[in-house]
Design a protein that fits this description.
This protein has helices at about 5-35, 35-45, 65-95, 105-140, 150-155, 160-170, 175-205, 210-230, 230-240, 250-260, 270-295. It has about 300 residues and is mainly α. α7 (about 175-205) crosses α8 (about 210-230) and α7 (about 175-205) packs antiparallel against α9. The longest helix is centred in the middle third of the chain and has 35 residues, at about 105-140.
Length: about 300
């Protein structure tokens, strides 16, 4: 009888804490380790081109904003993702069994829907932190200002002209297109990742997936999602780097007119390479931290 309270606490409080801490560690690790590739991808997608945007010089420009935004953004994503996933599956199945323990043929088509919805909710929440971080980071990467601090000061200095609301809008420029990019990306990546983990659990005697396995699955899922969403990423990058705010449709028309269909695939190589490696590091680190905090060895 005395075992009931600890079990209840484990099923409610611990998963939240695990997602929070594991997500923060995973986000910081992947952003710092792959930052140079992200810089090159941004410069390739810039309307000014790679050379004019800095070439291979200063590839850590803007890293300060990434360092500040990585942990809270990733933590917010995974807390929302794990919470929504657990709730969606418990509502549908009718109990509070942990999501990773829910298996069976009937889940083959139902579970991906839960993962898509949960990942989409997680991305919307994370963008509250990610978008201003991206605006500052990418402008520094494209050599519009020498550093993240300089970009932030430049935006804040416009308050006398555009007001506080204008500064807020400038910090969140590209919010809509970022959501449009991130939701399809995660709707592809996370169901693939979760499906591969579920397949691994079904074909072995182990219930838990190791960090190495999770990283390998994350790399494959990330590469597929990255390639399919590159056109959206190009539009998002151009919008954030533009001197003035632009509407999506005229921007898309301008990209097509000046660069043709190939312009929408600019930076696809570095993007796939970056996100494939990032998926391995991000989801591998997340799984390692999640398992470790839960008391499992990987």
């Amino acid at each position: 009888m005395s075992s009931t309270p600890p079990t209840s606490t484990s099923n409610t409080e611990t998963p939240f804490a695990r997602a929070l801490l594991a997500g923060a560690l995973a986000g910081t690790t992947v952003d710092l380790s792959l930052y140079p590739i992200d810089t090159l991808k941004t410069r390739l997608q810039s309307s000014a081109g790679l050379t004019a945007s800095g070439g291979f010089r200063g590839i850590y420009a803007g890293v300060g904003s990434a360092l500040i935004g990585s942990a809270p953004g990733a933590a917010l994503f995974f807390v929302t993702y794990e919470g929504f996933k657990t709730r969606l599956q418990s509502f549908r199945i009718g109990h509070d069994q942990p999501p990773d323990k829910i298996t069976g043929p009937e889940e083959d088509w139902k579970a991906p829907t839960d993962h898509m919805l949960a990942a989409s909710a997680g991305e919307v929440a994370a963008c509250a932190v990610r978008v201003p971080t991206e605006v500052i980071k990418q402008r520094a990467q494209a050599a519009q200002q020498p550093s993240s601090v300089a970009v932030l000061r430049f935006i804040l200095a416009q308050r006398s002209k555009i007001g506080v609301v204008g500064v807020w809008r400038e910090m969140y420029r590209g919010w809509g297109i970022t959501i449009v990019r991130e939701v399809p990306f995660t709707a592809i990546q996370f169901p693939l990742w979760e499906s591969m983990k579920a397949w691994r659990r079904r074909t072995t005697a182990w219930n838990e997936v190791s960090a190495i396995e999770s990283g390998a699955f994350g790399s494959i899922a990330g590469a597929v999602a990255a390639g399919m969403t590159t056109p959206l990423d190009v539009v998002k990058t151009r919008m954030m780097l533009a001197a003035e705010k632009q509407a999506v449709v005229p921007l898309v028309v301008d990209i097509w007119r000046t660069g043709g269909s190939r312009a929408f695939l600019a930076g696809i190589g570095p993007r796939i390479m970056w996100i494939s490696a990032g998926g391995a590091i991000f989801l591998g680190t997340y799984q390692w931290a999640f398992n470790s905090i839960a008391g499992f060895t990987t």
